[in-house]
Design brief:
Blueprint lengths: L20 H10 L14 E2 L11 H9 L8 H14 L3 E5 L2 H12 L5 E4 L4 H9 L3 E4 L20 H11 L7 E4 L12 H14 L3 E4 L3 H11 L8 H10 L3 E5 L10 E5 L2 H14 L10 H13 L3 H20 L12 E5 H4 L9 H13 L1 E2 L1 E3 L1 H4 L9 E5 L7 H16 L7 E5 L10 E4 L1
Helix pairs in contact: 1-14, 2-11, 3-11, 4-5, 6-7, 8-9, 8-12, 12-16, 14-16
The protein binds ligand F0G.
Length: 450
């Protein structure tokens, strides 16, 4: 087997800048130990997120020039709409400026006080939008999904028995929709099997509940299905994608992930009445239904991105390059969520620095250590992000890989930095929050070292 290479060559480059340890120490303190508050120019390798940070193709840039900027009925909209209809099978396609705008519209229509929304694991903006509507968000991952060392092939699956139990407990009338996040970002970028989506669909059917996908990383999920699910090996990814969406009544998508664009989102559904009500809300806050808060050129880039992301040489390279990072970290003794996820590797920060208790945010401490050591920016997914009300199951640090941006030597550098940090991890110190906003605190909270 030959090396799985990047299935593209580089046409435009953007310099990145090395800083000195002294500079980084000063920048980190100015930012209150919160890497969201750094300036990007002070970061060497930015693994904060895979969202909107990908590189577009020459065909996408050509689409940017072709964009039709008509207010209503632009050609670019119809290219975008038919691309999504063909890919997903949904009749109704609304563009939004990004995933959370789709979520906000959906939960303004479906949520509300007294309602309960189950999900395998809500992403932070989804959780915040459910709660903002007054509803309660419930996470129902399978037990294997909470254990970093368990190599279950579909750790993103929803616990179907727990879903039935929840429906019995609160009553189907209080559940406006069941949601499945593919891949399960907050649970380690782990995939959900077709079998699990079918099982959840069957439960929804028995209780008359709609099923929505949070489908930001649907193509990566479909690639895992092709690799790991019995009977799926010979199926084109686009067929698997079509079946995934076919099992749902609608979907929210942040196109900043598998749409391969820097900005954009989608809200999809079958139901005519819901579509009408969603269109009214879209017009109220995003824009007219044929542009939804975007420029025509953004719709062109999305139409093309949703085509390129299903190319199997791309998906093979994408998933392999994430696995490469994960396997090297495991080999040096750094515990990660196994197996590596699709868009990111999640380091078990509690295991990396056992001397730092959860209330002193071990994940945030590792994130600060990576920046100090090598100018790498990663993201805490643990008690800072989710611990306001209760302790999350895991204290993780996410190394998210932007799409088509970094080469293997960039990733080798990240591995070297990790090795150096590991050698002196005993020096890592806990943190306490000195200032925090009322919601989504990880974006703006400031910390001090304990
Ligand atoms: N759902 C999931 C599973 C996500 O990962 C995200 C974004 C969203 C919804 C919201 O989409 O950012 O376009 O509004 N995740 C990014 C991340 C921010 O870093 O994982 P958005």
């Amino acid at each position: 087997m030959k090396t799985i290479i990047e299935p593209f060559r580089i046409k435009a480059v953007e310099p990145i800048r090395m800083t000195t340890p002294e500079e980084r120490e000063a920048r980190l303190r100015e930012a209150g130990f919160n890497l969201f508050l750094l300036r990007a120019r002070d970061v060497l390798i930015d693994l904060l997120t895979d969202s909107g940070t990908g590189a577009m193709s020459s065909e996408q840039w050509a689409g940017i020039m072709r964009g039709d900027e008509s207010y209503a009925g632009a050609d670019s909209f119809f290219r975008f709409e038919s691309r999504l209809q063909e890919m997903t099978g949904f009749a109704h396609v609304l563009p939004t400026h990004q995933g959370r705008a789709s979520e906000r519209i959906l939960f303004e229509l479906l949520g509300g006080p007294d309602k309960v929304v189950p999900n395998n694991t809500h992403f932070d903006t989804t959780l915040a939008n459910v709660e903002h509507s007054g509803a309660r968000a419930v996470n129902l991952p399978i037990a294997e999904g909470r254990d970093p060392r368990n190599r279950h092939p579909f750790k993103g699956n929803m616990d179907v028995a727990a879903l039935e139990h929840l429906i019995d407990e609160v009553g189907a009338e209080r559940i406006p929709a069941v949601m499945i996040t593919v891949t399960n970002n907050s649970g380690g970028g782990q995939p959900v099997s077709l079998e699990n989506i079918r099982d959840v669909r069957a439960v929804c059917d028995r209780h008359g509940l709609p099923l929505f996908l949070d489908a930001c990383r649907f193509a990566e999920n479909a690639w895992f299905i092709k690799q790991r699910e019995p009977g799926q090996q010979d199926r084109p990814v686009k067929d698997i994608v079509r079946e995934m969406f076919g099992l749902a009544d609608g979907a929210t998508i942040s196109a900043k992930k598998d749409g391969l664009v820097n900005i954009g989102g989608v809200l999809l559904m079958r139901d005519e009445d819901l579509f009408r009500r969603a269109s009214s809300l879209l017009i109220l806050t995003e824009g007219y239904v044929t542009y939804g808060g975007l420029a025509g050129r953004d719709l062109e880039a999305m139409a093309q991105g949703f085509e390129e992301v299903l190319r199997e040489d791309y998906l093979q390279y994408r998933i392999r390059s994430t696995a490469y990072l994960g396997e090297k970290l495991l080999a040096m003794g750094v515990q990660i969520v196994e197996p590596p996820g699709g868009h990111a590797v999640y380091v078990d920060a509690a295991a990396f620095c056992p001397h730092i208790p959860p209330e002193q945010f071990p994940g945030q401490s590792v994130v600060c250590g990576l920046y100090r050591e090598g100018g790498i920016r990663a993201c805490e997914i643990g008690s800072v992000m989710f611990g306001r009300h209760s302790r999350p199951a895991m204290e993780l640090v996410r190394l998210a890989i932007p799409r088509r941006v970094y080469t293997q030597s960039h990733i080798d550098y990240v591995i070297e930095v990790f090795d150096a940090l590991r050698a002196r991890r005993g020096d890592l110190r806990g943190l306490r929050i000195v200032d925090e906003p009322p919601a989504l605190r990880h974006f703006t909270a400031r910390f001090a070292e304990v």
